[in-house]
Amino acid sequence: MTTETYECFTVEIADAVAHIRLSRPEKRNAMSPSFWTDLPAIVRGIDDNARARCIVISADTAGERPIFSAGIDVSMFGGGELGSDKNHPQAGAAFYLEVHRLQDAFNALEECRVPVIAAIHGGCIGGGVDLITACDIRFASADAFITIYEINVGMTADVGTFPRILNHMPEGVVRELAYTGRRMQADECERRGLFNTVLPDQAALLDHAMATAREIASKPPLAVYGCKRIITYSRDHSTVEALDNIAVWNMSMLLPQEMMEAMVAKGAKRPGVFSDLPKRKAG
């Protein structure tokens, strides 16, 4: 197992699974300036170097009211990141560029070739919702909740929640959450389709998330990548376009030897032996 530490994260990689933990429980895992630089670098580093076949994102939490993430650190609104002088003639353009930079941090999760699982324990607030909606799968503990909190501080959520959460919940429900900022508890999130499964507590949540990640990691990586790519493409295109894209993908990427290995391994009740995704070359 390898372990790496950052201001906002601890990263452990073992058994082809990368576990990225938000590691500032004393700050309610708020997203400080370094968060937005480190997260995409971590995710792209894992992907580009084929260091893992699945990623799990969880959070270190503390106290009776655990918080997965409180969203963007308020310090970012008082300095250069998001606190530009609104009277400056180029303030709007600078803010626009900065928001795109923040959006890119979560785009990295969606663009990553390997699946990303969010394991949500406690409150998932504001930017935390942006994060989890960019993941492939969302599991939660029974005490988890989400809040599209931005309306409560006079903002419109702008880092990814709206275009992604609409793929999981009805528009009217999303509008209610966005306009009111109310909490949606884990059981309702599951019922509405945002959470795949709700587990009784944090220990059960992490066990389930890691077991699922290991199961995904045992499958042929190229086939898993194809599934992720085609599902995302199909979401944003017509059926005709998606079917053609699937045909072109399999025409180019289907590996008969890995299909045979998958079938033989299943018959022999042993793990399959599959090639990792190719590393991406720098530059």
The helix content is: 40-55%
Main sheet: strands, sense, barrel:
7 strands, mixed
Shape: globular
Radius of gyration: 20 Å
* β-strand number: 11
How far apart lie the N and C ends? 28 Å
Approximately how much beta-strand content do the residues carry? 15-25%
Q: What's the domain count?
A: 2
Total helices: the number is 10
The strand order across the widest sheet is 1-2-3-4-6-8-11
Task: Walk me through this protein's architecture.
- By secondary structure, this protein is of the alpha/beta class.
- It has two domains: 2-217, 2-enoyl-CoA Hydratase, Chain A, domain 1 (Alpha-Beta Complex); 221-268, Orthogonal Bundle (Lyase 2-enoyl-coa Hydratase, Chain  A, domain 2), CATH 1.10.12.10.
- Helix content is 45%, strand content 17%.
- The strands form two sheets. A seven-stranded mixed sheet has the order 1-2-3-4-6-8-11, with helices on both faces. Strands 5-7-9-10 form a four-stranded mixed sheet.
- α1 (33-48) runs parallel beside α2 (91-111) and α8 (221-236) packs antiparallel against α9 (239-253).
- The longest helix is centred in the middle third of the chain and has 21 residues, at 91-111.
- The two termini are 28 Å apart.
- The model has no long low-confidence stretch (mean pLDDT 94).
Give the helices and strands, then pairings.
Elements (H helix, E strand, L loop, with lengths): L1 E4 L3 E6 L2 E6 L10 H16 L5 E6 L7 E3 L21 H21 L4 E5 L2 E3 L1 H7 L3 E5 L3 E3 L13 H5 L5 H10 L2 E3 H7 L4 E3 L2 H16 L3 H16 L2 H15 L2 H13 L15
Parallel strand pairs: 3-4, 4-6, 5-7, 6-8, 7-9, 8-11
Antiparallel strand pairs: 1-2, 2-3, 9-10
Helix pairs in contact: 1-2, 8-9
